[in-house]
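pinging the channel bc i need a second pair of eyes. not urgent but kinda urgent?? the chain im working w is below, pasted from the shared doc
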Amino acid sequence: MTLNQRIEAFGHLAAAIHSKRWQPDLETINARNPWFTPGNLKTAIKGILRYLDKDKLKSWYSSYHRINQTEKTVGLIMAGNIPLVGFHDLICVLISGHRALVKLSHQDNLILPSLIKAWSEKSSLAEQVEFIENWEVPLDALIATGSDNTARYVSYQFPSTPKIIRGNRTSHAVIRGDEDLNILKRLGIDMFSYFGRGCRNVTKLWVPSGYDFEDLAKANEGYGHLVRNSHYQNNLQYQKALLSTLPERFLDLGYTLLVENTGSVSPLGVIYYQYYQNHSTLKQQLDSQMNKIQCLVSHEGWYTGSIDMGTAQFPELLDYTDDMDTMAFLKNLD
């Protein structure tokens, strides 16, 4: 299959989603995984549709020049923290002309198979995807995403296989202090989409000394619905009970807890914050935690290396997880 044929195939996939030929069983999905609400699935689908624009795909692929066309068998170990979280890796493998052996998380093993089945009715490229439970054939390469424990396990199990391994990460936001309610509402999308469970969810805020959180709380009071999910509410209540036994002060917004903490990754239901004195000290503080930061957000990307508030959950094709260039990796397999 030529490059143009593969790009056309992804166009067929986008058309299938838009035309409603693919109808995921939202009730069954949510029953299997209470974190996967219909709203969260719609957000995930909106995100992958951004990848399937044919002009974007062609421009993206052409930037790597002559990617080797020799077919390889690439294993994909996908995480299950948010719906369809491994879809970008799948696109990378397929557009490069390779075969994908996909091991799904038990938390997200319904959506992608049903989508690929619908795609197979319109394109033979879907035949390059196989879902497996165990690795029964040799792998030419492996791309694995999960916890830090998963990363250690994969490194041990596949010592000589070329691989990309990704562990735990989170995202941070830099607040300047002059953001209005609309801007802070956009920040809420970064913090609370998917209940805050994704690596691109903002779980820590960097705020100027003396920052007043009143506007932030007011802008995002609409997220009170999060506590209607019993799993989220249980996490929130546990964290509140734990913090109540400690000397640290925290702000209870009803749907999340704001806690001053120097750590990088906050627990579910908690948003860390840390004060900064000036931009120089802020840079030093951020640099010390960058190995755990997936992306950094600020209003209109004013802080160097950051993206605009409200866009963290909608990465582009070139926004590689953990800054590991998946396409370059696949190009150099030979």
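so Residues 77 and 103 are 5 Å apart (CA to CA). and The chain has two domains: 3-168, 170-308. — does that match what u expected or am i reading it wrong
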